[in-house]
């Protein structure tokens, strides 16, 4: 019996509304947005990495709404095996510069290897915390730290009623269809579950290659749990001789609760995040600085005394590495290599269904005027770009805060001045291809306003972490205030007095 499904008319109808294989590489028009399964193509643009040019193809899952980026290098459509990595996002290491995991090292080493092979793809998937989101991931970190590392990250997940891994990789085969990829994969991973997931989609696997980094005092516990409990093929954590580093203060776990004066926000977690040094500058207390002997003076290039008997010392990384190798038991080298500790506060917003992150440093006293930065996310700056202006602003802001001694950094997640990463990527595509001359013109064509960021929400959360109304506000430059009427209005509405504007092109001296 002939069915409609088998008739030529039906096949012609299917061809009319389905996008063909490889259609994301050659859309029919500037307005065409190829779709396959739940994966929608949004934009493509060029990214200059430190080690070569990549082309970013941006997609969005129309069911759960998360973005996916295929960072492609070289010819990705030939039949030869293709080096690929499926990489899950990590805001703490890739944006906030945290060093309690190995995510950013795996990201960069995979891109370096792909560049050396001259062809390959890194699939960047917005699946924070093995797919549970940052609020749950932050609760995991809080529980582990509260236990004094007696519980592993997998114990913490189980205590919250979560599986070890909530990620899925269904979009990969759909992206391959839209990009016209048929080659077998050489998969860069330590996780056998990822390889099994690709095979389940019918993607041929030619080989797997590990991506393992040397453990540090700040990620050793996490990497050990991945090796012993998570099934990852990691050898170094179990034989490493580095000493685990504990947070600077005890951490107490708590139940999620709404803020009394802003009940849209659920306070989900608080824990300590070790953030990498900026400009190779170590932050020391007066007591720690006194431990430096003549043997360590050659390691120090500059020394700046700070308020409250603190010291900022610029070190020589090469000299420090050599000294540490020659003197493996020297605890002073640990001080000189130590990161900056920030308390991380994570909130879940029931209005936008997004997480908000506030980093705080130091304990403000009466008379202190905390240094504050509202830092907007720039997703592409998570990658090792040749020019990463937003990442540099983050580093400078951290240095301003630790130099003064107390302050807060609030991360505003949405790219594109609050319009979202899809709008930001489309803007880049339009300006790179001549569809728009400027970002302002592309925003008009997109139908969005200059600034869509929720400054009111930011100020509500900021008030939770400053002791009085006065702050020192870090901004990019004086011109950045001109178009931000909503920003100034939100400061006034929440009675926050900016005692001093710190512009990132200046170098203030704190008294």
UniProtKB/TrEMBL annotation:
Q: Name one GO cellular component term.
A: cytosol
Carries keyword Hydrolase? Answer: yes
Question: What biological-process terms (Gene Ontology) are attached?
Answer: riboflavin biosynthetic process
Where does the record place the GTP cyclohydrolase II domain? 44-207, 342-482
Q: Name the Gene Ontology molecular function terms of this record.
A: 3,4-dihydroxy-2-butanone-4-phosphate synthase activity; hydrolase activity; metal ion binding
Q: Which Pfam families match?
A: GTP_cyclohydro2 (PF00925)
Domain of life of the source: Bacteria
Q: Which InterPro entries match?
A: GTP_cyclohydro_II, RibA-like_sf
The record's listing under SUPFAM superfamilies reads: RibA-like
Q: Which UniProt keywords apply?
A: Hydrolase, Riboflavin biosynthesis
What PANTHER family does its record include? 3,4-DIHYDROXY-2-BUTANONE 4-PHOSPHATE SYNTHASE, GTP CYCLOHYDROLASE II-RELATED
Question: Any idea what this protein is called?
Answer: GTP cyclohydrolase
């Amino acid at each position: 019996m002939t069915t409609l499904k088998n008739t030529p008319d039906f096949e012609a109808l299917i061809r009319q509304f389905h996008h063909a294989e490889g259609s994301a590489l050659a859309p029919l028009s500037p307005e065409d947005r190829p779709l396959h399964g739940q994966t929608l193509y949004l934009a493509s643009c060029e990214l200059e990495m430190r080690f070569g040019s990549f082309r970013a193809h941006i997609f969005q899952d129309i069911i759960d709404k998360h973005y996916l980026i295929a960072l492609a290098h070289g010819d990705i459509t030939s039949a030869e095996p293709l080096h690929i990595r499926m990489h899950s996002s990590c805001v703490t290491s890739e944006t906030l510069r945290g060093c309690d995991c190995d995510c950013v090292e795996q990201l960069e080493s995979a891109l370096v290897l792909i560049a050396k092979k001259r062809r390959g793809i890194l699939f960047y998937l917005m699946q924070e915390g093995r797919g549970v989101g940052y609020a749950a991931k932050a609760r995991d970190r809080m529980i582990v730290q509260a236990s004094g590392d007696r519980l592993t990250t997998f114990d913490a997940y189980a205590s919250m009623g979560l599986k070890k891994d909530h990620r899925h990789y269904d979009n990969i085969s759909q992206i391959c269809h839209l990009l016209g990829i048929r080659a077998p994969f050489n998969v860069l991973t330590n996780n056998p579950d990822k390889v099994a997931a690709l095979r389940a989609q019918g993607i041929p696997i030619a080989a797997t290659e590990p991506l393992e980094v040397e453990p540090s005092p700040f990620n050793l516990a996490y990497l050990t749990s991945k090796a012993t409990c998570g099934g990852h093929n990691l050898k170094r954590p179990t034989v490493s001789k580095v000493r685990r580093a504990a947070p600077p203060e005890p951490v107490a776990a708590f139940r999620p609760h709404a803020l009394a004066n802003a009940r849209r926000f659920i306070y989900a977690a608080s824990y300590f995040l070790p953030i990498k040094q900026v400009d190779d500058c170590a932050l020391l207390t007066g007591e720690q600085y006194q431990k430096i002997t003549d043997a360590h003076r050659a390691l120090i290039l500059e020394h700046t005394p700070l308020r409250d008997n603190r010291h900022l010392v610029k070190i020589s990384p090469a000299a420090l590495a050599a000294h540490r190798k020659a003197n493996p038991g020297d605890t002073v080298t640990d001080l000189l290599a130590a990161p900056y500790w920030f308390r991380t506060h994570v909130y879940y917003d029931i209005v936008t269904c997004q997480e908000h992150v506030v980093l705080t440093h130091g304990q403000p006293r009466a008379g202190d005027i905390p240094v504050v930065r509202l830092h907007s996310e720039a997703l592409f700056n998570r990658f090792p770009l040749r020019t990463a202006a937003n990442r540099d602003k983050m580093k400078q802001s951290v240095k301003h805060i630790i130099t003064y001694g107390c302050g807060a950094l609030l991360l505003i997640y949405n790219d594109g001045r609050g319009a979202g990463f899809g709008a930001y990527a489309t803007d880049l595509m339009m300006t790179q291809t001549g569809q728009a001359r400027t970002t302002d013109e592309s925003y008009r064509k997109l139908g969005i306003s200059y600034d869509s960021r929720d400054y009111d929400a930011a100020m509500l959360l900021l008030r939770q972490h400053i002791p009085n109304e006065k702050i020192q506000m870090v901004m990019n430059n004086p011109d950045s205030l001109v178009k931000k009427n909503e920003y100034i209005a939100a400061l006034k509405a929440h009675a926050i007095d900016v005692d001093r504007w710190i512009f990132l092109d200046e170098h203030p001296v704190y008294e």
